[in-house]
Amino acid sequence: SIARSMERSWQFLTCKFPWATFLSEGAFKRVYRVWNATVSAEEAVSVMDVEAIDDMGNKEIVGAELSVSVLLSSLVRRNVCPNFVLTRGVFTCPFEPPSSHWGCADNKKPNGNFYDPERSEMQPESPNDEEQGKFQYIRMELCRHGDVEEFLQSQDGKSVEANEARMLLFQMAFALHTAADRYSLKHYDVKLLNFFLQSAHAGGECVNEIDHPFTVLRYGMGSHVFGLRMPTSRALIAKLADYGTANIQPESNGQPVTIGQFTTLENSPPDYLISGDSAQQGYGHDNFGLGLCMLHLFTGDAPYEEILADVVCPTALKRKLKNIWEHHSSSTYGVVRSVILADVYEDETGIIEGEADEILYDTLYRYLVLFGIPDKKLQSKDGARVWRAIMSALVGQDSKQSATTAPTRRSRRNMRHDASSISAFDSFGRIPGPDTVQFEKDQAVYSLLKGSDRRIASARDKLTSMDGGMELLMSLVSFDHTKRATPLEVINSVFMAPLREEPGINVYEPTDLIAGSYMQYHYSDRGLVHETK
Q1: Which string of DSSP letters, residue by residue, matches 144-199?
Q2: Which of 31, 95, 348, 511 lies 20 to 30 A from 194 at CA?
Q3: What is the 3-state secondary structure (H, E, C) of 79-91?
Q4: Separation CA 457–CA 69 (nearest Å)
Q5: pLDDT digit string (tens) for 290-326?
Q6: Per-residue pLDDT reduced to its tens digit, 170-209
Q7: Helices then strands (H, E): number in the chain?
Q8: Distance (Å, whole) CA 345 – CA 336
């Protein structure tokens, strides 16, 4: 009955939204910039094909997208947190949007870049009844600066100034903290593509930049107030969106990981790949994703997997990992195996079709190159096999241990196979592993701590010049999910200290414009302080 009450006709769809341009397409939805004739303004609309999603066994995504977006929008409306894309309404329709008027991936702007009543007078052709389906439409605010990754690409040098990156990271952390605190939300796909940028003055006010050269957003957290002071022309609010993979069930925390937490494979947390089925659901995934966002903000240019596109898992390590991840007798890596072999099918005659997806092999290796092999390994019994594979392939073994261990027939065969990679004992008395030389070459270019790549070196210089910067990033991307900084710890970190207002000290100019004040989490000596905009 609820679904029927939300259903709208073809005439409603085409008359209320006579013009649109295609913005983007993901695995489960398309997003458009549309003209809403009722309010005479542009907004964003996402469209999900409910039947297609149901056929793939992912119908819960439809409900998650809607329910979470409504919950988080309430936080925006109540002035708790501005850092979520605002949802304005939802309806269903038996028909998908007309590509002739809304555009598509191949023709994004069929009726121009802006709404023109004269060009939009002609109505799209009515669909046939057999074209009916189930489509969910969600109306949202239009974030005119696009997603943060797109924004970085548009900047000079494809990067932003270091303090601007710090303020964007603060807002991302505040969004994740608020969503987790209020609704136990785990997003499971935190990346710059899912944060959108809206002007701090999008509410309709016209701001004279000469009179107000700077705009301030104020956030309260505990006993501190943080002031994000930005040039008015670049006063931007980062807004989290795309909640199809989100989970708001607190009882899921600590449960074994499922295939539903493997979203953007290149961003899969290392503990999922090392511990396998014993890895746990929870906030660790989002904390790691926030770390990758921080890295992306400071490298600019591209996400880490594009920067490291020519870095692939070397032969020996991949062979060892395959024996662990893909072998059917390996009962502790069923989820990882399902991800890798998702497109591989074996018929009744034993013929195998399709190809394995090897992204996870490159992903784990790139983390090791970028962040290094941690001194303290994950304390997981199941993960020991992966760590042994990593250490034997990339580091090697102690020469004394090697001398006292009689090699098996199989290990002798492997040693002959890898002999070309083993030149001699290294300076620490170890026998290098078969992939040691390649690992050291890759680290020389792409290691965050010592790599020579221009983008990596630039990020390193920025982070080391900012008190606590490198330490915070390395904490967020820890291989051990229990050691990662939480969003609250990010907010209260040394790295964010320059944004704090000092009690009794006025750090603003009389011409500064306070565009928003969010104090629901601010505690003074008198208790909780509620301050409105």
Answers
A1: TT-BHHHHHHHSGGG---HHHHHHHHHHHHHHHHHHHHHH--B-S--SGGGEEEEE
A2: 95
A3: CCCCCECCEEEEE
A4: 38
A5: 999 999 999 998 999 999 999 999 999 999 999 999 9
A6: 999 999 999 999 999 999 999 999 999 999 987 656 788 8
A7: 20, 16
A8: 16
301's tokens = 């240019």
Q: Degrees (nearest 5) of the Cα angle 99, 105, 108?
A: 65
Mean pLDDT of the chain: 89
The dihedral region occupied by 380, where left means phi > 0, alpha psi between -120 and 50, and beta the remainder, is beta
Which tokens is 124 given? 């799209």
The amino acid that residue 530 corresponds to is H
Three-state DSSP at 227 gives: strand
CA angle 172, 176, 177 (to 5 degrees): 115
What span, in angstroms and rounded, lies between the C-alpha atoms of 165 and 161? 6
Q: In the numeric block, which tokens belong to residue 85?
A: 């894309």
Q: Which of 136, 119, 109, 100 is nearest to 2 (CA)?
A: 136
Hey, CA dihedral for 218, 221, 223, 228, is it positive or negative? negative
How many residues would you count in the chain? 533
Q: Is the dihedral of CA 422, 423, 428, 431 positive or negative?
A: positive
Kind and range of the H or E run holding 26: none
- Name the one residue in this structure whose structure tokens are 């609010």: 237
User: b/e string for 202-213 if b means 16 or more Cβ within 10 A?
Assistant: beeeebeeeebe
CA distance 310 to 480: 26
Return the CA Rg of the chain.
26
Among 203, 196, 205, 207, which Cα is nearest to 233's?
Answer: 207
| DSSP string over 412-446 | HHHHHHTGGG--S--TTSEEPPTTHHHHHHHHHHH
Q: Where is 474: in which H helix or E strand? A: helix 469-476
More confident residue, 430 or 141: 141
For residue 96, the 8-state DSSP code is P
Q: What is the 3-state secondary structure (H, E, C) of 275-303?
A: HHHHCECCCHHHHHHHHHHHHHHHHCCCC
The answer to whether residue 533 scores a pLDDT higher than 60 is no
Report the distance separating Cα 278 and Cα 155, nearest Å.
42
Token duo for residue 266: 């290149």
First to last CA, the chain: 39
Structure tokens at 440: 């050291």
The encoded tokens of residue 367 equal 């983390």
Nearest to 416 by CA among 316, 506, 306: 316
Q: What is the sign of the dihedral through the CA atoms of 370, 376, 380 and 382?
A: positive
Contact 362, 309 (CB under 8 A): no
The residue type found at 295 is L
